Amino acid sequence: MTHRDMGPVRVFLGAPSILTPAQQSTLDRWVGWLEQRSCQVIRLGRDGHGDDPWHTLPRLLAQVDGVVLLGFRQLHAPDAVWRPDTEEESRSARCWTSPWLQLEAGMAVARSLPVLVAPEDDVAEGVFQPQTWNARVRGTRLTPPGTGTGDWLDAVRAHREHRR
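-> structure tokens emitted (164 positions)
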């Protein structure tokens, strides 16, 4: 089977469903960037989870070669405190994205899929904290799309080759 016979690289693109016009524009640029690299972009919209998201998402992830998660700001909490009234009390991230992205990241890592996360400014919780980035979960800037993603793209293509 030749490289061409295998079809396009399939990439799941996760992002919050409700976006500002500027965030939507950035999402559209990411889709365009992925498509320019011969990736078929798979999205799961707000209504796409069906009655049982715990089965829908794993089935979808079984059909892709890589995952991109765009951490757009969804919650602005400038005065939030993490672990209040404990010895570990500290300021939390100023902005948080959708908690669904954390679940999508965890499921993708469990499937050994190459994961790329791109947080918006001030989003730094969970998988979007640069300290958590490594060979399994790579991180980059949200804009411009694709900055420093060569290793992730190589891993996605290698996953596709292995899967076929």
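The CA atoms of residues 102 and 127 lie 6 Å apart.
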